[in-house]
Write a structure and sequence with these properties.
By secondary structure, this protein is an alpha/beta fold. The protein has helices at 40-47, 71-74, 90-101, 105-115, 119-122, 131-143, 161-176, 188-192, 212-217, 228-237, 258-267, 282-292, and strands at residues 2-11, 14-24, 29-33, 55-60, 75-78, 149-152, 180-185, 197-202, 205-211, 221-225, 242-245, 252-254, 272-277. It has two domains: 2-210, Rossmann fold, CATH 3.40.50; 220-280, Alpha-Beta Plaits, CATH 3.30.70. Bound molecules: adenosine-5'-triphosphate. One of its GO terms (molecular function) is ATP binding.
Length: 301
């Protein structure tokens, strides 16, 4: 549904997006992650025809954005929630968009309901909206044409925890209904729950990508038991490498699947207090580690 092939953007001497390739399958949510300045927005702008690539290409439903017959009906885009006309009411913003892409007024009310903007809020001018309300309006605009694909740049920005929870539900339902979602974030935990796959970029380059489970399991397994010293010895005996022995009861990090560790513990009657995929550091640490080395902002430090 979304195919990105060797996409590159250079601004003078700066390579903002450096030869990235990935795919987003129908029915899935892909989190596009990277620190500030990593090149996420530039990549999304190229995907949606707003910035011409220096080389490479991106297709949506088999065509470039510019080749799409009625892009507003096929691809829902939210790149900059503050770009909406400040002097119009939320409802007016959506009505104007509805006319331009050819959808009914009734659909405007439907999407307002979907994003949880009340009658009163829809009648307020956008300049008086909070950032969270602007995000909801931006998502409403993206959903307006009943698209099959959603491309959202930092949609969780400005949403409170409840709003983030709501957005996850909305995107999950959209994907479960066969839709394709690409959403960017500079915060792993915002997308970690909802995303099926993750694409992590730093300084324009892909630094890691794969299914969430795959990326999580790269960190090994964390295990905590009532007797970690004995468990470590049992694991070593079974040729399962223990990479860390935590101090103060923080457990072990083991280079094996949780199932393997659990079985050894069960066979030897060691009581487990915790058993999970990922090292003690978790995906967040891995993300920070992967991107710290490639953060442009880090250059100044
Ligand atoms: N029009 C432009 N001209 C020159 N440089 C640009 C332009 N647009 C983006 N850049 C640079 O390209 C790099 C990537 O920027 P981009 O906005 O794509 O990053 P991002 O990952 O979306 O970060 P953020 O979350 O901070 O927006 C940055 O160094 C930015 O300064």
């Amino acid at each position: 549904m979304i195919t990105v092939e060797n996409l590159t953007k250079r601004y003078g001497g700066l390579t903002a997006v450096d030869d990235i390739s990935f795919e987003v399958r129908p029915g899935s949510v892909v989190g596009f992650l990277g620190p500030n300045g990593a090149g996420k927005s530039t990549a999304m702008r190229m995907m949606t025809g707003l910035t011409p690539p220096t080389s490479g290409r991106a297709t949506l439903l088999g065509q470039t954005y510019r080749e799409l017959h009625n892009p507003g009906r096929q691809v829902g885009v939210m790149l900059d929630a503050s770009a909406q006309h400040p002097g119009r009411t939320g409802r007016e913003v959506l009505r104007v968009a509805a006319v331009s892409i050819g959808v009914s007024k009734a659909r405007v009310d439907e999407v307002l309901g979907l994003v949880g903007l009340t009658e009163e809020e829809a009648g307020r001018r956008v300049r008086n909206y909070s950032l969270g309300m602007r995000q909801r309006l931006g998502i409403a605009a993206a959903l307006l044409g009943e698209p099959q694909v959603l491309i959202l740049d930092e949609p969780a920005n400005g949403l409170d925890p409840q709003g983030i929870h709501w957005m996850r539900g909305l995107l999950r339902r959209f994907a479960d209904g066969g839709g394709t979602v690409l959403l960017s974030s500079h915060l792993l935990h915002e997308v970690q729950i909802v995303a099926d796959d993750l694409v992590m970029i730093g300084r324009g380059r892909i630094v890691a990508m794969g299914s969430k489970e795959e990326l999580l399991s790269r960190g090994g397994t964390t295990v905590r038991s009532t007797d970690d010293v004995r468990l470590a010895a049992l694991l070593e005996r079974a040729d399962v490498p223990v990479t860390t022995i935590g101090s103060g009861g923080s457990g072990l990090v083991v280079d094996a699947e949780p199932g393997v560790v659990g079985k050894i513990a069960a066979d030897e009657r060691v009581v487990l207090l915790e058993l999970r995929s990922g090292g003690s550091e978790g995906l967040e640490e891995m993300f920070l580690g992967l991107t710290a080395a490639t953060s442009r902002e880090g250059d100044a430090a």
